[in-house]
What does this fold into?
Amino acid sequence: MTSTTTTPESATTAVALSGVTKVYGRGANAVLALDGVSLDVAPGEFVCLVGASGCGKSTLLNLVAGLDRVSGGQIGLAGGASPGLMFQEPALFPWLTVEANVEVPLKLRGMPRAERRARVAELLRTVHLNDFGRKRPHELSGGMRQRVALARTLALDTPVLLMDEPFGALDAMTRDILHDELERIWSERKLSVLFVTHNVREAARLADRIILLSSRPGRIIYSTEVHIPRPRRIDSPEVAAIAADVTERLRTEVGRHGQ
Amino acid sequence: MTSTTTTPESATTAVALSGVTKVYGRGANAVLALDGVSLDVAPGEFVCLVGASGCGKSTLLNLVAGLDRVSGGQIGLAGGASPGLMFQEPALFPWLTVEANVEVPLKLRGMPRAERRARVAELLRTVHLNDFGRKRPHELSGGMRQRVALARTLALDTPVLLMDEPFGALDAMTRDILHDELERIWSERKLSVLFVTHNVREAARLADRIILLSSRPGRIIYSTEVHIPRPRRIDSPEVAAIAADVTERLRTEVGRHGQ
Amino acid sequence: MASDTLTSTARADAEISGLDALEIAGRDKELSRATRIWAATWPKLAALAIAILAWQIVVWSGWKPPYSLPGPLTVGRELVAQAQGPQLWEGLLTTLRRAAVGYVFSVAVGLLLGLAVARSTVLRAAIGSMITALQTMPSIAWFPLAILLFELSEKAIFFVVVLGAAPSIANGVISGVDYVPPLLLRAGRNLGARGINLYRYVIAPAALPAIVAGLKQGWAFSWRSLMAGELIVVGISQTSLGAQLTYSRELSDAPWLLSTMIVILVLGLVVDAAFGAADKAIRRRWGVLDQAGQ
Amino acid sequence: MASDTLTSTARADAEISGLDALEIAGRDKELSRATRIWAATWPKLAALAIAILAWQIVVWSGWKPPYSLPGPLTVGRELVAQAQGPQLWEGLLTTLRRAAVGYVFSVAVGLLLGLAVARSTVLRAAIGSMITALQTMPSIAWFPLAILLFELSEKAIFFVVVLGAAPSIANGVISGVDYVPPLLLRAGRNLGARGINLYRYVIAPAALPAIVAGLKQGWAFSWRSLMAGELIVVGISQTSLGAQLTYSRELSDAPWLLSTMIVILVLGLVVDAAFGAADKAIRRRWGVLDQAGQ
Amino acid sequence: ACGDDSEGAGGSSGPVTLRLGYFPNITHAPAVVGVEKGIFAEKLGANVKLDPKTFNAGPAAIEAVFSGALDATYIGPNPTVNAFSKSKGEAVRVVSGAASGGVALVVKAGINGPQDLKGKKVATPQLGNTQDVAVRYWLKQQGLTTTKEGGGDVKIVPQENAQTVETFTSGAIDAAWVPEPFVSRLLNAGGKVLVDERDLWPDKKFVITNLLVSTKFLKAHPDVVQKLVDGQVAANEFVNSKPEEAQQAISDAIGKITGKPLDLKLIKQAWPTLEFTNDPISASLKTGLDHAVEVKLTEPVDLKGLYDLTYLNKALKAQGKPEVVQP
Ligand SMILES: Nc1ncnc2c1ncn2[C@@H]1O[C@H](COP(=O)(O)OP(=O)(O)OP(=O)(O)O)[C@@H](O)[C@H]1O
Ligand SMILES: Nc1ncnc2c1ncn2[C@@H]1O[C@H](COP(=O)(O)OP(=O)(O)OP(=O)(O)O)[C@@H](O)[C@H]1O
Ligand SMILES: [Mg+2]
Ligand SMILES: [Mg+2]
It folds into this structure.
């Protein structure tokens, strides 16, 4: 029950977590989802979070996004703006068309109509859904919904982006293309990204730094910087090497838990 | 608007699709999701379906499961029992605990209480969620929900299993473990499996046969048998070779569509 | 094995009835417009025919004397006679005007009250349970207060109508807001919707089905309250449906009473059609109506 | 930048009010039981105090003569006097018994009707819209029919109550069934739930929130119909709350009327508490109540 | 246990149930007293079971008679005429009177004559009912116009009696032409009597309550009807000879039904304005109807056959009392 959001230590930190703890439930049923997680994301840094299923990655993103209260520790955000979060589920509004879904954050920012239209069209082009603007979420396939959610999150235009398995439902090709798009946007807009993924190669492909979370309680057990020069290719040997390293660590960790 | 379910040509076919076509919507908005798909799954065969996002894989599974009507063509199922389908979304019942969710198909089969309990416990152990039986779906992480859905589908005990990206939200380690479990159950129970995935390596790891679907309209463009002896390992060079081949074909296909 | 399969197919087809049929309603789409209209109309006509026939048979059986239970023909003639005179139409007009005004007030009050209670924990604890309690208070209990406050004006009627209908609408709103999926709330907040915007962009549309259900119940409450409330000021200068309903009863004029009831039922059907259309539009948007795809 | 952040934090905290506060209600869990009870109670007490005070002030102002608008003290004394005699309790008992029986009937009829209409396309087309129309029919219109069918027995009262409440409950069921998420329906069917089992395992629980909302509205309708219906025949030596309400009004006994209204309101509060508890249990199960964790 | 399932016009064999309706109201004093004091039960004898039902207003009682749920009821002149005319003279017969008088025009202070009513609002219990007709006819005689819609020199505002007290005290109406006990109640609320309706009638008599039986029951069980009328005569005897006891009985009966005894003071106050007579005063009913036709509130109604006073006259004769004229 300590305070939540404070100023990060310095202007060189976009997101600062110090000793963040999160407990769900009470008493005998309490689940310690996160235990003393400290982590700084520098402005413009791309951080990937990897960890076993149920280790607290989504919880962490929710806390940073301010959608949940920490049970202990502090989270600091630079610049005032709250970060944009792409949820693990698409979380689209079923009563709106694809276009309208993507338009919501723009409307909420008070962007004029004409500009909004252009931006929506551009975003839908980015996720390769330009033909589907008039459809409703229930008329889309799983991967299409995920891409709409991506477009909607990108429409937020926040300096900090939190992404929870954004490409989990996509085939390898589409994913590759979106990796390129995301990397382009990230470098153009100088975003700070906190990116959850199960695909270790994807992490190696995108990240400046990969962070490994342990399971119940979630703790940072490993952190490595990725120094492969960009542009990278997901099937390059350097990426594979990093991926192999992280996979090995992950295997040890999961093995330790007897899974 | 032709007939739907008929007898497969011979007893050596568990699932038989012939010229299956599916159109969503009407008039100008009509989407041709599947166009003349013919496919036989032999009893005990493990078939993996791969294809770009939105190419009609989920549609196909829904048709085989009898949850939608075909617009043309025929689907035949051997043995009378309708196949078990694991949906792309977890589709858990939010009002039931994890245990109760898994118990539903057993109850519907009229299994006695004691036996049911034992079976539920066993299934939850299979998906490594034995400690979470009393939780409700909203208290689980995304990957955990997916595993509950898997357990629930396995509880169905049908000879034909349809799985729509069952491991999409799982980390590599948990996924590996579940690959082993699934393979064990498949060979023990002599299941016929139609398995949708985006992970080509996963397909090569599991499949007897990999089938590639093109996008809009969905058509079978490539089919290859995987002759690697089991048990296989996902990081084995043979699996990687098959995966590379399929990826290449997929890339051509997706490229052809300008994505 | 072949026969096995065939059996299963037959079973599956037999099972595709009722709700299941609804679910695969996609194939209806191919049917022509005329066919669909006919499909929606014949059951209504059949129901009407059956109802009238049953009624006529009971009358023919001589179970009750005709002055107690007049036949469809008598009532029909009465209805025609009524329809030719000005009284029915004047009354109808007055009542409809009052219903419209009263309902609009009720909706405004109900929506605001519902939102306020749903939004504020303190308000909910304070007056939340009062809403249902108010709903159960019969209209006549409010008459003295209405007269005290508004004397014999139409305002007194509206007062009774609003007290009758607003709680029901508020309850719809509260129940709708309570069941907004948390994930959508979070999504909305993360997209920058706060305060009123969260309501506008997320909560209101997500709660819409329940709100429409509440509005429908509220209409029934407001109409019933109106029928009672119209007796507060009878004939000050005009007749009304509520007065006609009571008078026909007081005059023991069964054909008149029944024809007035028919008028009320017809109005109810018209209003239901409006609500039905709204509901259908929402369901189509949400993808729960046409459950064929997905 | 530091100040920027602080500003944002302050804003965020200010915004965490109302529904947002509800959403992060998780922290309430750490509060003690006593604190939570107090938090739920004080707003009610405050609301009550404010209401009584306002009432007393209006009375003191001399706006209306005391026989027209008695003060809280007079009404309180009346209530105490009533509570000491047997009549109030006898009437209450009679009415509650009738309410219970009538409501149970209404629920049975309403659920069956709702399910039938929701399930069958033909039935829906035939009588679906009739349900709302029936709902709008005032109770008094049914009195002649009730007497015709059941003479002057309690059955006539139940008839009026059921006709008042069942449509509302049926509407709740229909609206609930209509909005069952298609994905869950499909999941249920794939798991082997057909026909009645699909209702038992999927549709009924999924529609539960809407059904409970309908049951709540139905209670209000049944109670109001009962208050009116109890006048069809007033037992020769048996009093009822409905009779007391009407007679207190006919006798222009304002303190009595008000004390009867208070009794009705208190009953309404009790019933609402029951519904509230049911609703809260459902919301907790569904994970929409404790929206802290998602 | 219905009276109508045993056929035969002669006498009744076997036990018969008589379902008798009345209002717990001062104008129904003979009925209340007759039931409360066991007078009906005594006269009906062991072979007839009395099943009393109370009503709050006329329509339900008539509906019950029409549907065969009630065999006889005490009721006002208005529902009587309605029941007779709507059933084309089939359903009901008046077999006795019960009460007369008890109606007055109560006005606010400051209104001292008919002319003062100009532009004022006058309440009546129901459009076209006895009191409504009376006030319109009276105003017409005073040279004041009224309309059905509430226009004219004097605005007639039909409303429930219960509401009249509310509207009178709140000042929404200026006068009311109502029956007891509302007259007394309005007087207690600061009104005064401008017209006592008795003064407008010959012999100061006009019907306010009479006893109605269903024709079917009358045909099936004339002997029971005779006993009922005997009871009515005896009840009136009791009411007139022991007013104190009758008043107490009414107060208690109302208390049992409504949960609160009626204020004895109010009953005593209203008592002198009423006369409990067995004469149904058929002439007043007829005249009232003529007036209604004259003020264009109803079409003429043929009342021939409404009264069947043979039973009453038999009862009166047996007691040595003067008989009433059969109209
Ligand atoms: N209910 C529906 N109404 C209209 N169109 C639909 C509907 N469901 C699916 N479609 C369309 O059918 C096509 C195939 O969808 P489907 O869900 O089968 O794709 P998929 O192969 O499963 O894709 P993914 O890998 O993204 O899940 C898509 O273009 C989609 O837009
Ligand atoms: N609302 C909640 N109530 C109770 N426990 C919860 C809640 N949400 C999450 N948890 C628990 O917290 C832990 C971490 O969950 P979280 O969703 O953060 O996992 P994750 O790392 O995102 O997993 P995945 O990769 O499967 O999505 C899990 O053990 C889960 O059961
Ligand atoms: Mg997660
Ligand atoms: Mg899919």
